[in-house]
Amino acid sequence: MRIALLLSACLFCLNAQAAPVDVASLDRGTWPEKLGSPALFDVASRAEILMFSRSLLASEALDEPALKQRLGLKIINLAALDDLRRQLWKRLLANYTFAQQSCEEDASFCYLVESMDDLREQAGKLELSEDSFYIGWAAPSHAFHERYLNELLRKAALFPQISSEVARFGDHERNGDEFNDRLFLLTFDGGPAAVGGNTDWLTDYLRKQKMNATFFVLGSSLQTRVERSSASDVQALYQGQCVGTQGWQYRSHSHWVDWQSSITRSATLAQNLMPENYVPQFRPPYGQRRADSQGFFQSQGLQVALWDIDSQDEPGKLKADESAQRVLTLMLLWRKGVIVFHDTQDRARLALPMLLHETAQSGLGWQDCREAFR
């Protein structure tokens, strides 16, 4: 039975997945203003919300064959797509409502939006004149949001056969939806890196900035790090930070026979090694986990920790500056949430300082990792 299910899942993946979607990034240099105050952050936020809403609205005119062609898929889940669109519109309206609170200070991209119909109407009418102060941003932003929307729609179209971060299976799964406006949580996946590597640099940098983050570790990498240094060195490495788990190996936990053992084994190691840093959270590699796993996670006292702002900093994707600019654009769009980097990658140690520099005067807050998802 297990072999049959695995073969069925693999067959679906082969049939469903065709050409990969281009990863979206936006050169923030096309935006003519620094995010030098909370009000200027709001101006840029309103602009990105309206531009994404414009793309989302246009996508609703596509029928099933057109969606399959656009997403490069042979099979799509229309119900999941519709559900994602509803969730996106709900969040976009809430975000624009927050972003327009500073319209008295700067009226750029301020329109009367009091309802979902208002937002849809304004998004449909969005157009910048050739002499607009923001005209250089318009076309690159539109291209970014078309690509980013494709990323989201493609994941929804494959859900739940291929699970991802775009939808939750239950209340045991968290993604920062409940955070306050302008509040973000930093997270890092796939570590720890080798002794003296990127994890060392990032944890030290965060401590110097008086910040913390949640590091989701792989059990095998953590055990290797202990063996090649010491338990006390690893405890010092994560001082002031939070440590969750990604399982024993960085592989999908949706069709892996030993997925439960992978999680419990790595969680036990992290908790015993660093009881003061450990948080009972599991970050599924690739966002993939089983639809029927809620009972297991609840029995283990674990929450599934998803994300909604991905840096795409893995090898073969974005460069460090592109990753930082993607994250910043998504921060403007979503205005709160969980940011994911990979602490085994050089891109993360380059992108994070860029991101903090660009947002230093924007009135943002960084969620204490010990308070997240409590």
UniProtKB/TrEMBL annotation:
Domain NodB homology: 179-303
GO biological process: carbohydrate metabolic process
Lineage top rank: taxon: Bacteria
GO MF, any single term: metal ion binding
Stretch forming the signal peptide: 1-18
InterPro entries: Glyco_hydro/deAcase_b/a-brl (IPR011330), NODB_dom (IPR002509), Polysacc_deacetylase_ArnD (IPR050248)
SUPFAM superfamilies, per database record: Glycoside hydrolase/deacetylase
Key words of the record: Hydrolase, Metal-binding, Signal
Gene3D superfamilies on file: Glycoside hydrolase/deacetylase
Any one GO cellular component localisation term in the record: membrane
Pfam family, one: Polysacc_deac_1
Keyword match Hydrolase: yes
Protein name as annotated: Peptidoglycan/xylan/chitin deacetylase, PgdA/CDA1 family
Organism listed in the record: Pseudomonas trivialis
Lineage: Bacteria, Pseudomonadati, Pseudomonadota, Gammaproteobacteria, Pseudomonadales
